[in-house]
Specification:
Strand content: 5-15%
Structural class: mainly alpha
Helix content: 40-55%
Largest sheet: 3 strands, antiparallel
Order of helices and strands: HEEEHHHHH
């Protein structure tokens, strides 16, 4: 398992902005995280500055688990990952953070695969949020013609520059 690569995957899932994606100028080896500020993603070595700590700190990992379990796709993931032994989902193993960390990585890979299958892997955060919102309303019974009418009405009433 490549900790540096997996920490970068988690940082992206958590809304991290990498060089060229942020309004602020950051170094190529840095990521700007909403909660932790600018951190290095390319190393986990001590003495290299502030680095990503998802693999060894509950303070870093628990917010990821909170985001995962509050995501609309989490119930589908629980169904996907369930077995005879457990009911699926992410098990928090307080004795071995690495076990929980690996489950988080597995979820994010599954989540990204779902986005790829639905065609939104390259979408912006706005597009991903809109996609989730539309899917939720459609799963609740909203039909495409009604959705189009509602979107046309909203766009017609928005003040856009």
């Amino acid at each position: 398992m490549d900790i540096v690569k997996n920490n970068k995957i988690i940082a992206r899932y958590m809304g991290g902005k990498f060089s060229g994606e942020s309004r602020f100028s950051i170094e190529p080896q840095d990521v700007l995280l909403p909660k932790f500020g600018v951190c290095r993603w390319d190393t986990v070595d001590v003495g290299e500055g502030k680095t990503l700590q998802y693999h060894k700190s509950w303070d870093w990992l628990i917010p990821v688990i909170d985001k995962i379990t509050s995501d609309d796709t989490y119930p589908k993931y629980r169904d996907h990952s369930s077995s005879i032994v457990d009911d699926g989902g992410i098990d928090i193993n307080t004795k071995f953070i690495s076990n929980t960390y690996n489950q988080v990585i597995y979820f994010i890979h599954w989540y990204n695969e779902q986005l790829t299958l639905s065609g939104v892997e390259q979408a912006s955060e706005f597009e991903k949020d809109l996609f989730k919102l539309i899917n939720k309303y459609c799963s609740d019974g909203l039909k495409k013609p009604d959705l189009v009418k509602k979107m046309e009405w909203v766009l017609g009433n928005c003040k856009m520059s």
